[in-house]
Each structure stands twice: as structure tokens, then as C-alpha cells.
Write a structure and sequence with these properties.
Helix content is 87%, strand content 0%. It is mainly α. It has one domain (2-220): Methane Monooxygenase Hydroxylase, Chain G, domain 1 (Up-down Bundle). Helix 5 (153-183) runs antiparallel to helix 6. The protein is elongated, with a radius of gyration of 20 Å. The protein starts with a helix and ends in an 11-residue tail after the last helix.
Length: 231
């Protein structure tokens, strides 16, 4: 019994370490998205470059979480609920890494796109919608991480449903950009830059949704990826 308690204490310590590393990765990825969007909005090339530079840190976090999680699974042979949690770490860290990739793409759009001079009025209006899209996707990311940490499957269910609004705003941005390119063919590059940023934000929402789905799975043991969430 004493040896069992010792092993259990070691397992709990390993879980706490993993949770801390995942939280740190989540914080870094949130900062990457925030910095990438600030760089895009203010055409701050230095800030955009810093996002690209930090991308390697995001990748390193994913590799470390992958290694530590698989080691725990192999060494501890966890029971069903703990195994689901560990699988959630594996899958969610992959989603965080992909969100980091999208932040990197947004930063590169800023670096590689020449702003129009003077800016087009209708492009300003579209950028307002992009800001809304940014707020929605960033909120999904923030809440999905908090819900994963708290094992809040009810909140995670709401985050999954929130993805529909992200898709709606994204589709509106794409439609507006398509109309803008038809009316202003000499400014196609600027519209395409907005489309690429909007696409990355929509994908960030998708990955945040995945993290929320991982929370539901780790708590309930129910895979809701391609189904309505059971009541």
C-alpha cells in the first residue's frame, strides 16, 4: 500500500508538471496571436518578425509535451479517466502548435504585403469585420484553454457552439473582399492579404473548438467531433 501511494504521488506530480507546461504553451500561443494581429493592424514589421522568431518556442513546447505525455502513459498505465486526460494533452498541444502556425502566417502577411496608399474606404470597413473575427477567435481560444484546465465540459460545449459565429463573420469578410477585388482590381494584393488573415483567424477558431471538444471527451468520454453534443 505504501508503494502504491508513492507511485500515485509521483503520477500526480507528473500530471501537475504537464499541466504547467501546457498552460505555459497556451499563454505563449495566445500572445503570438495577439502580437500577430497587432502587427497586422499597425503594420509593425518588427513586431511581426518577433512572432516568426518565437515560433520555434511553440514547436519546442509541443515536442516536450508529446514526449512527457507518452512517457507517463507508458510508465504509469493510467486508468480510463486519466488516460483520456493525457490524450487530451496530446491532441490539444497539437492544436496549439497549429494555432502558433496561423499566428506565424498572419505575421508573414504583414511582412510581405505593401499597404495601399491611400487606404481604400471599403477595405477599412472590412478590417472592422476582421477585428470582430479576431475578438471572437481569441475569445474561443482563451475560454477553451481555461475550460480544459478546469475540466469545464459545460463551458466547453458553449465554446464549440461559438464556432458558428466565427464562420459567419469569416464568410462575410470573404464575400466583401471578393466584391472589393472586382471593383478595385489594382488593389487585389491588399484584399488577398485580408483574406489570408481572415482564413488564419477562422482556423484558430477551429483549433480552439478542437480543444473544447477534447475537454468534453476527457470529462465525459464522449467523442463529439462530428456530432451534436449529447444532452
Amino acid at each position: 500500500m505504501k508503494e502504491h501511494r508513492h507511485i500515485s504521488a509521483q503520477f500526480e506530480a507528473e500530471l501537475r508538471t504537464l499541466e504547467g507546461k501546457f498552460a505555459a504553451m497556451g499563454g505563449l500561443v495566445e500572445e503570438q496571436v495577439r502580437s500577430a494581429m497587432n502587427a497586422f493592424k499597425s503594420i509593425d514589421l518588427s513586431l511581426a518578425q518577433s512572432v516568426c522568431t518565437r515560433e520555434t518556442q511553440v514547436n519546442q513546447f509541443e515536442m516536450e509535451i508529446d514526449q512527457e505525455t507518452t512517457t507517463i502513459i507508458a510508465r504509469r498505465q493510467p486508468t480510463a479517466s486519466d488516460l483520456r486526460l493525457l490524450v487530451g494533452f496530446l491532441k490539444s498541444s497539437t492544436d496549439l502548435e497549429r494555432i502558433g502556425d496561423e499566428a506565424d502566417r498572419i505575421a508573414k502577411v504583414t511582412i510581405n504585403t505593401e499597404p495601399s496608399s491611400p487606404p481604400l474606404d471599403d477595405l477599412r470597413a472590412i478590417l472592422d469585420d476582421v477585428s470582430t473575427l479576431d475578438s471572437l477567435a481569441s475569445q474561443m481560444l482563451r475560454e477553451s484553454l481555461n475550460q480544459f484546465a478546469r475540466k469545464d465540459e459545460s463551458g466547453a460545449s458553449a465554446t464549440i457552439e461559438a464556432d458558428a459565429e466565427v464562420d459567419q463573420v469569416y464568410n462575410a469578410v470573404i464575400d466583401s473582399c471578393s466584391e472589393g477585388m472586382a471593383q478595385n482590381p489594382s488593389h487585389v494584393d491588399e484584399y488577398m492579404a485580408v483574406i489570408w488573415v481572415a482564413r488564419s483567424l477562422e482556423r484558430i477558431g477551429d483549433h480552439a473548438k478542437n480543444i473544447a471538444e477534447n475537454t468534453v471527451y476527457s470529462v465525459r468520454g464522449t467523442d463529439v467531433r462530428h456530432h451534436n453534443i449529447p444532452q
